[in-house]
Design brief:
This protein is mainly alpha-helical. It has one domain. Helices cover 68% and strands 0% of the residues. The chain contains five helices and no strands. Helix 1 packs antiparallel against helix 2. The N and C termini lie far apart (26 Å).
């Protein structure tokens, strides 16, 4: 089993955390299509964390970029959390 570096793992765990927060807010606002798309975007990350492969970092970037292009950033800028200098705190 391959594991991502600790910094990547923390960034992806933070993104999953923020995704749950966003999904809860979207569900409360009745935006079911966006909740579906967000879930579809984030669902692959736990499997990647479990068995990290060389191309997974780029795959995560592509998934998040596609979601954010469809739903402009607003309060949840997932791409920024991939490249912030400091690992985001929970």
């Amino acid at each position: 089993m391959n594991e991502p570096p600790d910094e990547i793992k923390l960034r992806l765990l933070f993104i999953l955390h923020r995704g749950f927060v966003e999904a809860r807010l979207l569900a409360g606002a009745g935006k079911t299509k966006q909740v579906f798309d967000l879930s579809d975007t984030l669902e692959l990350i736990p499997g990647m964390l479990q068995n990290w492969q060389d191309g997974d970092w780029q795959a995560v970037r592509t998934l998040l970029k596609t979601y954010q292009e469809k739903y402009p950033i607003g309060r949840f800028d997932y791409m920024a959390h991939l490249s912030d200098q400091d690992v985001p705190p929970f």
